[in-house]
Amino acid sequence: MMDLTVHSLQYLLWIAGTLAAYWMCPPRARAWMLIGISALFLAIYSWDSLLALTGLALLGYFAVNMASSSSSRWGDAGLLGLAVIFLVYKSFISVEGAGIHQGFFLLGFSYYILRILHVMEDTRRGNLPQYSLEQYLRYLFFLPTLLVGPIHRFSEFLRDTGRVRWNGAMVSEGLERILYGYAKIVILANYLIVSKLSLLAGTPGPEHEALKAYFSCLLYGMNLYLQFAGFSDVAIGFSLCLGYRVMENFNWPFFQHNISEFWRSWHISLSSWCRDYIYMPVLAITRKPGFAAFCAMVGIGIWHELSLRYLLWGAYHGLGILVWQTWQGWKTRLPEIRHPLARWSLKVLSVLLTLHFVMLGFMLTKEETLMESWKGYQVLFSGVF
Amino acid sequence: MPHPDSNNLPPLNQGAKEQKPDKLFLSAGSSLSYGKLEETIHKLSTWYRQKGMTSGQRTILACQDDQISAIFFLSMLRNGLVPVLIDPELTDREFREIIEFSEPEGIVADVGLLKTWNRDSWISERTIMLPVVQKTRQSGNLFNKLLGKKKADRVEPENPDAYPHILEALEESGPGGVQDASQLAYILFTSGTTSRPKGVEISHGALMAHLQTLRNQFGYNEQTRLLNLLPLNHVDGMIHGPVLSYFCGASLFRPCQFQPQSVQLVWDTLYAERITHFLAVPTMFALLIQMEDTNHPPLNCEDLQCLISTGAGMPESLWKQLEERFQMPLCNFYGMTETVTGGLFCGPDSDTRKMGTVGKPVDCEIRIVDDSGAEVSQGTAGELWIRGANIMTAYHRAPDETQKVLRDGWLVTGDLAQQDPCGFVSIVGRKKNLIITGGRNVNPEEVARVLCQHEAVATATVVGLDDPVWGESVSACVVPGNNHLPDETSLIEFSRKLLAPYKVPRQILIVDELPKGKSGKVALQKVKDLFLNRASANAKVAIDLEQTVFDLAASSFNTQPDKLNLASRPENTPGWDSFAHMNLIMALEQSFNISLNAREVMGVQCLEDAVTTVRKLTGSGPDPEL
Asked: How far is A131 from chain B (nearest CA, A)?
């Protein structure tokens, strides 16, 4: 497997090459050309992922189409089968520090498996218009979102497919967005946070261990956000250049007032996927919002990695949402605060509280092992600031 | 036979002949180039000759397929044959009435239609028949099915004499052309003021004069990319579509039949195909505005130069909405089948444009007269008369009807109009008894006559009720007879068998007696009032239910009810998170004493879904027709 990052020169060349080939190609051939480029990309960087994506895509397509023509058992079996494959894969890959550079890793697997499951379930629910295999493959083999999402939706993709044409303003908007993405990754994350602020965070003396751990946690969260938001910007910009407007993935997550709002602004495409396909079904069956939210958050955790630390991280956020939901019930019994300054102060406090709840959660995923995370918490809460 | 260009008419293909063979003429599912069109017209010219079809002969044309209809209509015009356009959705009764009346020399119709007609009894043996086989998809192998691949069109092997199979054996030859301007170009049957549909005869002179008017008025040329989804058996569809595009060398787009489900496709086409001219009836415009996907930034249709409304009066509120949405002035024009398509034009030039009016006469003259035929003063309503080169020749085989509407070259429109001091004309009413629904004319007497054929109906009267989307909706008031108690559904089903879909009453009210005026005649306004009373009662139920759902949603989302509407969904409603969603579901269940299953809980994706689900589970709600 070859080394590749979204902000590498290679990927930039893939963007440029794809755009040139795409717009020079006759409109009728564009769909297959884009599928071909994505397949070539996977074949070069992760041929096993190409096989996996092709196989799983066909499996999903057959399962729901068989279901629509005969019985829903094929659809059920297909969904279950794919979910099991996802879990097996997650448990199979190296649990800690898995990456493109190490061992067996299917490029983009975590994203396209959710897309396939989404199409299967929405086809079964009758939420999608009629689509062809060509349109389905075009959606799954869509280079801009193949690597790191967003996990955009098929119905919106189909809508955009019907209106693709050269639009200078849209391409310009896309290029600008790609630039923002690179600025977030290269300038803000890699240069400012990783190279400069991390050094600065290490300057307090050894007597300020708690402060150092606090800064380290904050910088980890900020870096994570900027890197991932940058990747999403590149994907969204690249899509815009091809005439597709894919969903946003972040919306100022660290300025939200509560944990529920945070999850509607952090990795939006994943959280909305879990809302639609885990939370809502569990809620509709059990009628227990807290339990459903807990399941969804655990699902989000497992999606990142099938490990105890991510399971705990998901449960931590699930618990946070449960507490927030309970608080919503209690809040109505308290007297309303009318003074503007008090209201403003409360808002600031709620943002800070949400931010710190999220940042503290990152301690679980920041460290390689749970033991190290535990040590981190000990330092943070018992050390000196 | 004179050469087509040798007479005093401009050639119909004057725009088409300048175009490159691969230039798009018509996109309707698949693409038809100018080259392919010309080749087919030349082959059909040979076929017409082989069959002995000569200039002036009438030929029925009834095809569902847009490309085939356009090809035959144009090929007949260029060969001097007289196409008689018929809506292929008419019932057997309606077809028979027209065919028996017009006694055509030829019939070109979908093979399915020809099979269903019991033609031995009412179609002459001498009539030349050409069945048309719809383009069908090959069943293909599984791989092709999975790919959703569009297969090559094929012709059923059992129809070797059907179109398009006949083309394979035909050589190309030049079209026969037209003798002179007074020669009939086509006949189009329309619902008029008599219960029998009237065949409007249009000459080549009138057609060409009007094509030039349309071209000049709206600036059509070979760069034009026209979107027009009106049915091709309608003048605004056929003449202001394929015929005008052919005349100007333009490209025409008809991606689908217009229906509420295709609204998004229409928006996409406007944007993706860089449409320059968009023609529609107010019903279509209303649906486009109402059903545009508001969850995403509106599409910027920057290539659009002309937005044109026709077929029915354009309400001012919709007019404003359209101008705001498209950021350009709307053009409106008035005309009838009897004037080819138009006569009075409102826009695009500022001299003729004034909101709420049909503008001013272009290439024709008008009079507004009272009952005695004397011109009324400015600002006074009177009947609109039109005179010009675009006026019809006559009603087919109906001299009495023709005499009533053609007086000294003036066409009596039957519409009431008034003119302001600046010369702008407004249509203020209708003298004739006619319903215009979705841009199509329906004769109320014809519908009433059909209803009275039902054994349980003693008498019936039909009126057009104002409808925000359809302009007017066909509504029937029925008095039962012979001790029967007919129900609304069975009467609508009965009508469906005898009337084309757009003529079928959308609602039927069963009463003991029709309200009558002092003279003993049915008082149509009182009949309308009966419907309005029922509508307001139903509307109250609907509003109450919706309001309750909004109140419950507002309480669940911690917001104000007035900030919610039927289109509210989690993405555009603050506070509608997944937790609040369940609160709403439980509130609905408690308030309406219903129980939603898991699928229904997940199915509520906007407040309209919530209202629909509640309506379904409670079995309440208004009459869906109202």
From this structure: 8
